[in-house]
Design a protein that fits this description.
Length: 161
């Protein structure tokens, strides 16, 4: 389930800006579990990379999503439900910064909190009746050049914030 929620946040950012950003993120789950990593965006490309070597990196480029296990560098699969949710999130993102604070997509409730300067999101809250509750916080965001090689899955290049 964490995989699904992580992917939701990535697709939301897919169309936000033509600018290039690098951010650190922290996912906080209702049970107190926390995951950290790095998020980068460049035009229509995104990368969501967990620090934990037992987790994965998600790369979205050229309307294709790749999920790579951090330790083994092997590809993992996504399912149709995930892709459906992401299509909806992409439609929401196309309206940024004029987005609502709350959206309902099937059983998922998505809440968005922006920084006061409206340049980037501060937090995404994701919840549903199927026991999914999490917040993704973005911090230390930098507008900087992001090279295309970080959106490749083969060869796979590590990214450092």
């Amino acid at each position: 389930m964490k995989y699904l929620l992580t992917l939701i946040s990535i697709f939301f950012f897919n169309t936000i800006y033509a600018l290039e950003f690098s951010c650190l993120f922290e996912e906080v789950y209702q049970d107190g579990q926390v995951q950290q990593g790095t998020f980068i965006i460049k035009k229509n490309k995104t990368r969501y990379q967990y620090e934990d070597k037992n987790l994965y990196t998600i790369i979205y480029a050229h309307k294709t999503m790749k999920v790579i296990h951090n330790h083994q560098k092997t590809l993992l699969n996504s399912n149709k439900t995930q892709r459906y949710l992401f299509e909806n999130l992409t439609n929401i993102a196309s309206e940024f910064p004029n987005i609502n604070e709350k959206y309902q997509i099937d059983e998922y409730t998505l809440k968005f909190e922006k920084y006061q300067n409206n340049m980037f999101l501060k937090r995404i809250s994701i919840s549903s009746d199927i026991n999914v509750n999490l917040s993704v916080y973005f911090y230390d965001c930098k507008n900087k050049e992001i090279y295309d090689i970080y959106f490749w899955d083969s060869p796979f290049f590590e990214y450092k914030h």
